[in-house]
Design a protein that fits this description.
Length: 300
């Protein structure tokens, strides 16, 4: 063995050589974390001065990490507490037409997502003017422009939806009737025109059957040679006479009914009330032994 050789020191020297890089690396990592924490603290302070409290909060959360040096961590925790007291918060409340809470509402702030669903919570925002857009299915977007003041907490904003709730069932349409119609020129005027038209038809039928009755009576007299006391074709004359009487009855009924309806139509049209008032007319044929006509009735 050579003089001065100490074999027991070799393992320690080897271990020191191996451990040196790891120790150096640990120091580098610690310095890197320390630098990141310091940078986050500085950035948070600048963002706070610019009024960007939400972005400042993100940086303060980073430098409040337990891995950060105690002096930096404590300073960030203190600033975070101050920011919590300064940052304004807003809570939106949306009601449908029945006053029921609507939760399925998405909200954007200045064009950026802010809330996907309303849960009754006050959400943070930066101080200043902001444009909130609330979106509810089945309704047009609702816009609210708010000026938020630093330190304002739990500002409540209520929004009332117009129209039916998206979840409400659409009621069936109400049945329509002729009574109470409120459109056009008014029900009574329309009925007056209708009654007048039927009246004109009735008068026309009266005239036609009057001519037919006269023709049948002439035929009856011709069958008897113009002298009923010496009638030779009694059967034919009697047939023509019966037809003449029937046509005369119908003619009379047509003239009377047509005249009444025509007069009623003119009266209805000229005395028609405001279109919001109601009117109803019922017209039906009336036929009996030896007579015919039209029956009319109504409520005005």
């Amino acid at each position: 063995m050579a003089k001065g050789h100490r074999p027991g020191l070799r393992p320690f020297l080897v271990a020191a050589v191996i451990a040196a890089p790891a120790w150096t690396s640990s120091l580098a990592v610690a310095d890197s974390i320390k630098g990141q924490c310091a940078d986050a603290n500085a950035s948070a302070q600048m963002l706070r001065r610019d009024g960007k409290l939400s972005a400042s909060r993100e940086q303060l959360m980073k430098c409040s990490d337990p891995k950060c040096p105690a002096i930096v961590r404590d300073d960030c925790a203190r600033r975070l507490d101050e920011l919590d007291r300064a940052q304004p918060t807003v809570v939106f409340e949306v009601k449908d037409s029945a006053g029921v809470d609507v939760l399925a509402v998405s909200v954007t702030m200045d064009g950026q997502p802010w809330a996907a669903l309303l849960e009754g919570k006050a959400l943070p925002a930066d101080p200043g003017q902001h444009v909130f857009v609330l979106t509810v299915e089945g309704h047009p977007p609702i816009t609210r422009t708010l000026l938020l003041v630093e330190g304002e907490k739990g500002r409540g904003e209520r929004v009332d939806l117009k129209g039916p709730s998206p979840s409400a069932a659409t009621p069936p349409p109400a049945p329509t009737t002729t009574r109470g119609a409120r459109t056009g020129m008014g029900t009574q005027k329309i009925l007056g025109l209708a009654a007048g038209g039927v009246g004109v038809v009735g008068v026309g039928l009266g005239a036609v059957f009057g001519l037919m009755s006269g023709s049948a009576w002439t035929s009856a007299k011709s069958a008897c040679g113009g002298d009923p006391s010496r009638c030779t074709d009694v059967s034919t004359a009697e047939s023509h006479r019966s037809t003449a009487e029937t046509d005369a009855t119908i003619s009379t009924a047509g003239f009377i009914t047509g005249g009444v309806l025509l007069a009623a139509g003119v009266t209805l049209f000229l005395t028609a009330p405001h279109p919001t008032e109601t009117a109803r007319l019922v017209v039906s044929p009336a036929v009996g032994p030896g007579q015919a006509g039209v029956a009319a009735g109504g409520v005005f």
